[in-house]
Amino acid sequence: MSTATFPEETRARLEVDAKEIIGRYPRQRSALLPLLHLVQSEEGFVSAKGIAFCADQLGLTTAEVTAVATFYTMYKRRPTGDFHVGVCTNTLCAVMGGDEIFAALKDHLGVGNDETTEDGRVSLEHIECNAACDFAPVVMVNWEFFDNQTPESAKRLVDDLRLGRDVAPTRGPDRLCTWKEASRVLAGFSDGRGAEGTQAGEPSLTGLRLARERGWTAPDPDRLPVGDDPEGGAA
Ligand code: FES
User: Tens of pLDDT along 4-33?
Assistant: First the structure.
């Protein structure tokens, strides 16, 4: 066992949650991703204590757990603010203004990429495509969508977050939860708010409506020509 450990009370509480998570999988090591979210929900990041806890619960080495925790960017290795602000700077959002938004927030907050404001409220990160290109440029706060942003609206957003005002995403729940609370949901413990608010925006629904009007359906994968097989093999 690693020497980095949670205090006894914390560990006992996390073990109850870990047992529930592990019980959802046929092989216990499959529970590593939600377990990493669980320890992140405790401290706001995946610390050496969190790594050791996951390894102990799953019968893995700390090197194995560290390899996974450092591969996925949703796991943070140093303290993260109450609100993780991700600015999409992937191709479509970038050309629609994402680069300007990111530059404006860096300047406004006085932090660089993957850094946190001194008050511990906001962490800034440029992120890759979040499959919301029809709402570009997109900003995400604790993985909730803020669509069609501008440098000015994004600055207002982070100001509101730092001042503790209630902020609602464009789609999703009626108000934001904290980074730690979001991590607990990602660990598999629902906060019961998954059905709140707008689920799909009009741009996304337009394609569906057009397809229905025109009788379009997805192609039958068994009849795709060679080279178009979605599994990547020969038809
Ligand atoms: S490029 Fe930003 S959501 Fe897809």
Answer: 899 999 999 999 999 999 999 999 999 999
